[in-house]
Amino acid sequence: MHVPLLLHHFLDRAVSLYGDKTAVINDNRSYTYAQLNERVNQLSYGLRDIGVVKGDRVAYLAPNTVEMLEGFYGVFQLGAVMVPLNIRLRPDDYLFILNHSESKVLMVDQELYHLITPIKDQLTTIEKIIVHYKDEDCDEIDYEKWLSKYSATSFAREDIDENDVCSLLYTSGTTGNPKGVMLTHRNNYLHAMSCMHHLRVSDKDIYLHILPMFHVNGWGSPFYYTGNGATHICLRKATPELIFKAIEDYNVSVMHMAPTVLNGLLQYYEQNIPALNQAIRVVIAGSAPPPAFVTRVERELGWEFIQVYGMTESSPLSTISTVRSHLTHLPLKEQYRMKAKAGFPMIGCDVRVVDENGDDISKDGKSIGEVVTRSHGVMLGYWKNEEATMQTIRNGYLHTGDMATVDVYGNIDIVDRKKDIIISGGENISSIEVEGVLYEHPAVLEAAVIAVPHERWGETPHAFVVKRPGKELTEEEIIKFSRDKLAHFKAVTSVTFVEELPKTASGKIQKVHLRNDYWESHGKTGRFVN
Do the domain assignments include residue 3? Predict the structure, then answer.
């Protein structure tokens, strides 16, 4: 008999095998898997009581908390759909997403409730707003008081098919409104099975939630760490100081984060040198980090660096950068360079890099093509947006919009987003490659490179640089440094020094804002405004 691939089976397994083990720690609260399951049942009963039925959307606006974690399973037992919201958006963004998704219930953390207040009267489908950690002067439903009214006994689940949509994740809209990515139970389940293998997840793991759970379900962490009986540590705010404290307090073994967050940890470590005694795996996704990052993380911090690649539309992970056993004879420098790449396809993922004709590019580390993928993780489509779905999924492959090379070992290396490639004098320049060189400068804390117009060459690289505290640095020094390290046509021709770079909630640098700001400051608009 076929057993459907349903996500609440991961929690069932944890309760059965690890019921008395600590499942989650959130500030001063701690719950075993049996206790977490009871809260999940109470949530399911409560949602059913206020009218949530199979297929309804339940939105969550919350940082990494136990309430967010239990939301996934409590919502899924009803066959309802989880709509996790990015906590760094504006009220107008929430208005669009909540109305577009036709969400019926909104769960919101008290510290984020002020983002909903301005749009509350314009919400067309929200029937109930329930507040986590509610203040006395807030007139919405208090989550804990509401939850306590319901039974913690086993919940009679709805009849759910593995191809039913379970989560609706809105991608950040740099061109128009955000799009709602529909992921099914099957998408997330098989993605979790692949990830837990490649990331070597076990019941010994203590997982620190740094990447927000709303960010592609925190890379599926609510599923594969739960299914293996690992312990979740919820961190409401992910500052370097709090991260290192949590590592020490809870003996953390694995973390997922963006490269910019890891950069912040390296800077903190330099200044404070906290004692680190345990083996830690740090899983990095986002823009490709400079190889120097990998070297520093593994040599200075003593952590294992694992680069992964994917996107919301593929559940999300498709590749991993670990060095395969038959390549460990390579020089360390080459191994570190390999670890900084997107890597090779995970089990169950068919990942190719193709030219404009759809043919595989040469494995020469130089030819550039677009990354396309097909897997069990590829989304069902965009919610109420068939046109965008058809543009993204063509000939059975998800077209990522990421440009890459492939080396002789089959490792994929992301060189840029299509829109971020700099075309100077007919030559393609990877902004990521230029950024990697700038990070080697001892006075550079952060760097981002965009294309700016040039009368002779059409476009040239322009750098936005954040200086390290107490360091002096000039535009001329940066330009000379990049010319010494790169082919001259790749070197930056101008520099803007900034206090900080704009980032998404997951820590990814938002180049679209840098482009727009540059053009606005120069009194014009152009192809870089998107």
Answer: no
- Residue 379 pLDDT more than 80? yes
Question: Tokens in use for 206?
Answer: 């203590």
CATH of the domain at 79: 3.40.50.12780
CA distance 374 to 64: 30
Smallest CA-to-CA distance from 307 within 412, 402, 434 is with: 412
| Entry pTM | 0.86
- Whether residue 428 sits in one domain with residue 370: no
The CA distance from 516 to 518, in Å, is: 5
In a shared domain, residues 298 and 384: yes
The pLDDT assigned to 173 comes to 53
Nearest to 336 by CA among 327, 344, 345: 327
Domain of residue 444, residue span:
421-521
Overall average pLDDT of the 169-191 stretch? 86
Residues 353, 404: contact at Cβ < 8 Å? yes
How far is it, in rounded angstroms, from Cα 140 to Cα 3? Answer: 40
Residues 363, 269: one domain?
Answer: yes
The domain total for the chain is: 3
Q: Write 351-357 long-range contacts (CB < 8 A, 24+).
A: 351/318, 351/319, 351/412, 352/397, 353/404, 353/405, 353/406, 353/412
- Higher pLDDT among residues 61 and 508, named by residue: 61
> Are residues 406 and 438 located together in one domain of the fold?
no
Q: The CATH number of the domain where 464 resides is what?
A: 3.30.300.30
Q: How many CB atoms lie within 10 A of CB 144?
A: 12
Cα–Cα dist 337/335, whole Å? 5
Confidence of residue 217 (pLDDT cuts 50, 70, 90): low
Rounded distance between C-alpha atoms, residue 525 and residue 497, angstroms: 22
Q: Are residues 373 and 476 in the same domain?
A: no
- Are the beta carbons of 93 and 178 closer than 8 angstroms? yes
